[in-house]
Amino acid sequence: MSPTHVHTEKPLIVFIHGWSCRGSDWDATLAALHPILGATHTLLAPDLPGHGSNTHQLWHDWTIAGLAQALLKQLPAKQPVTLVGHSMGGCVALEAATQLESRAQQVILVDTFGLPYGDMDVATINSIEAPFREDFAAAMHYLVDNTTPVTLDSPTRDWIKTRMASASPEKMLPIWHNLLRWSPDNAFPRIHCPIHAINGEHIPPIAQARCAPVVTARVLAGSHHFPQFEQPASFHAALLELLRQPQ
Q1: Residues 150, 224: contact at Cβ < 8 Å?
Q2: 25-72 pLDDT, tens digit each
Q3: Dist. CA 40–CA 132, nearest whole Å
Q4: What angle do CA 34, 37, 42 make, to 5 degrees?
Q5: Which helix (H) or strand (E) holds 198?
Q6: Which residues have CB under 8 Å from 16's CB, separation 6+?
Q7: How many H-runs (helices) and E-runs (strands) does the chain carry?
Q8: For residue 239, what are the CA distances in angstroms to 13, 37, 61, 86, 183?
Q9: Angle, helix 169-180 to helix 88-100, in steps of 10 degrees
C-alpha cells in the first residue's frame, strides 16, 4: 500500500526497508500480518528517497535524519505509529521516533546493529565504504554473501543480491557515507516508547552492549541479517508477538 495521501483513523504500523532495498521487501510480511492486524491497524511499507519507486524523487538530504524526515512527510499527522525497521531502516525508525514524540508507540529494530554504529573508528569505516565506491555491484554481492547464512537457498540469496545491486550508486553512496558515521546516541535519550529488536545471530558484542540499556532484544535462531527472508515463519511469529503487546 502506498503511504501517499493515506487517510485513516487506525493506528499505523510502518515497515521501513534497509539500505539499497525497497518497500516491497515487506510484501510477504504484510501478507502474513494483514489478516490478523488489518482490521485494527493500517500497515504501510513506503519506499524511502532514492529507493524503489522513489528513484526519481527530488530530495536533497541523503542522511539518516533526512530519510526520517522524508518518511514522516508521507504519514498522516495524528495517528499513533509503530515503526518496524530492517537494517538501516531501524536507524531511520529511531530518528523518526524522536520526531513523533508521544505518537510513537514502539520501535522494532530488525537486525539493525549488524554494524556497530557509533563504535567504528575511521579506518574501519573507510575499509567498509571504499569497496562500494570502487565497484558497487561487486561489493553488494560480497555484502549479501557475508550477511546471509549458508543454509539460505541460492535463489533467495541471488534475489537479494540482484535487488540491492540494482540500486543507484549515485544515491546510495551518500547515504552509506552518512550511515557508517551515524550514531544512535542522539536518538536513544529522546525516545520514550519501548524499543525492541529481532536480531540474527551475528550482532557484534560491542553493539549489543551499546543497545542493552534501552533495547529489549531477542535472537532469531538460524538467521543472520535478513531474518524476514531467511526464517520468515519464525520472524513473523516473533514480530506479531511484539505488535500485539499492549502499549
Answers
A1: no
A2: 999 999 999 999 999 999 999 999 988 776 676 678 899 999 999 999
A3: 42
A4: 80
A5: strand 195-199
A6: 46, 48, 71, 83, 84, 85, 86, 89, 90, 92, 93, 96
A7: 10, 6
A8: 12, 12, 31, 12, 25
A9: 70
